[in-house]
Amino acid sequence: MIFIIVIVALALLFDFINGFHDTANAIATSVSTKALSPRTAIFMAAILNFVGAILFDGVAKNVGGSIADPFKVENGLQIITATLISAIIWNLLTWYLGIPSSSSHTLIGSLAGAVLAGAGLDALHWSGFQKIVLGLILSPFLAFGLGFLMLVLIRYIVVLMGNRSPGRVNRNFKFMQIFSAALQSFSHGANDAQKAMGIIVFALVAGGYHDDMSVPIWVKLAAATAMGLGTSIGGWKIIETVSRKIIKIEPMNGFASDLTSTVILQAGTAMGLPLSTTHVITSSIIGTGSAIRYKSINWGVVGKMVTTWIITIPISIVISYLIYQLIFNIIG
After folding, report:
1. Are 69 and 125 in contact (CB under 8 A)?
2. How far is CA 143 from CA 4, 18, 22, 25, 59, in A?
3. Are 192 and 18 in contact (CB under 8 A)?
4. 10 Å Cβ neighbour count for 200?
């Protein structure tokens, strides 16, 4: 029983870190354009992350059962322990460096590495793993393309409205950003908090404390609360990178980026796919920025972020594999 309590605590710690690590991206555009003050943006995001996390569970079931079968896998509790320690380490490291990496990528990679270490190659569901990874890879490209098209469409509509001063246009879009940031925060909670829920359910099933992949209400409430509390802390280093170092964000492209991210994240949630909020939001910002002026984007910063995105899954696989070996084969 103590083992499962430790795992739940680690999962909630991961969700808490996810809150200030990834939600920073969800509010970065509205803070950058001063549509919302940092304090107001964080408070709003914390509430809506909680609400979004409570209302859905499709992603949780997918994360909990698609990579390995918790009913059959050996050493399930040890596997989840190594998974969470690995994901927490990578999230804290990238947060400290101010790099907007993906909590989703590190969790999925860490789970795969721990399964390989604890149960062997045959225990890994390659089809489920590949489906999730494919969604994680394709979603940034979709976000970039949709963001580009979204801004082109919005600019066309603004031109059709005719003779509107830039100042008036910006004021209108600042107001609209309040709603787009709210939708984005809700979507982040609906998709990201479910990943920790899925991990907890996996552990409950593997430990014999739960007999199906449904998410108990106490798991929903605990995960949603942890993410909401994490969000309330804020991730200022990542907000700085996303809001200022990629491109100067104006209210129009900030609104387009938020709306694009919401559409992609909601589609992923509806399909039960765990997407990376970080990758979706950042890619939509780059897409809208490219529609304005390709050369205005700081491609050096983008290159560093993309490099981190590429290496996160393989590094997480290695870290969790080594952690499992160290804790359960060497020490204990």
Report:
1. yes
2. 38, 21, 16, 14, 19
3. yes
4. 29
**Alpha carbon of 20 to those of 83, 182, 186: distances in Å?**
20, 16, 15
Give the pLDDT band (50/70/90) at residue 145: very high
pLDDT tens by residue, 268-287: 998 888 888 878 988 998 89
Are residues 324 and 114 in contact, defined by beta-carbon separation less than 8 angstroms? Answer: yes
Distance between CA atoms of residues 84 and 87, nearest Å:
5
Tokens of 13: 């710690």
This prediction has a pTM of 0.86
Other CB atoms within 10 A of residue 145 CB: 15
In Å, how far are 23, 176, 183, 219 from 180, measured between CA atoms?
14, 6, 5, 28
Burial of residue 218 (number of CB atoms within 10 Å: 0-12, 13-18, 19+): exposed
| 211: helix, strand or coil | coil
Label residues 38-55 b or e (16+ Cβ within 10 Å = b): eeebbebbbbbbbebbbe
124 residue type, one letter: L
Q: What is the distance between the alpha carbons of residues 195 and 60, in angstroms, rounded to a whole number?
A: 5
Write phi, then psi, for 250 (nearest 5 degrees).
Answer: -100, 160
Q: How far from each other are the two terminal CA atoms of the chain, in whole angstroms?
A: 18
Instruction: Note the pLDDT of residue 172.
Output: 84
Q: From CA 319, how far away is CA 106, in angstroms rounded?
A: 10
pLDDT band at 82 (very low <50, low <70, confident <90, very high): very high
Cα–Cα distance measured from residue 67 to residue 83, given in angstroms and rounded to the nearest whole number: 12
| Number of C-beta neighbours around residue 136 at 10 A | 24
Distance of CA 131 to the CA centre of its chain: 17
Within 10 angstroms of residue 123's Cβ, the number of other Cβ atoms is 18
Q: How many other C-beta atoms are found inside a 10 Å radius of the C-beta of residue 281?
A: 32
Report the alpha-carbon distance of residue 275 to residue 192 in Å, rounded. 8
Cα–Cα distance, 119 to 124 (Å, whole number):
8
Numbers of helices and strands, H then E, in the chain: 12, 0
